[in-house]
Amino acid sequence: xxxxxxxxxxxxxxxxxxxxxxxxxxxxxxxxxxxxxxxxxxxxxxxxxxxxxxxxxxxxxxxxxxxxxxxxxxxxxxxxxxxxxxxxxxxxxxxxxxxxxxxxxxxxxxxxxxxxxxxxxxxxxxxxxxxxxxxxxxxxxxxxxxxxxxxxxxxxxxxxxxxxxxxxxxxxxxxxx
Length: 177
What we know:
5-stranded mixed sheet
């Protein structure tokens, strides 16, 4: 079972912020925005892994591209993949449903009730990404945002990526020792 969601847009901007002039008066500088990226992500709770990919837009076309990437990521021996997601229109469009049914039959969409993001396990990971990578950061451009997202995802998977089988084996070993 995979939990899917999108985050963004994340802006590449320089923070003008507030500074003080020589005469001790506040000077406000405008922010300059140099691009946006949207992050599509999947959280696989069976091995505590994240998979993310960034796009400039957030439409059905990008969602289908992300579905294709998910389908390729998982071994063909897996006969069914349940994808838990919210009710945003790009998930529910007729074209998206037909394309998934035709080209990715092993992927089954499971829609959460409206206004219930707390049921989607990826939301906590988005919060961690926000706190650890996005807050208090400035990004020079879209490439810089993408690099930050990739680095965060790689770091998350390195720290958390333990297959449920390994966890169960460790628990069994603890019982017998």
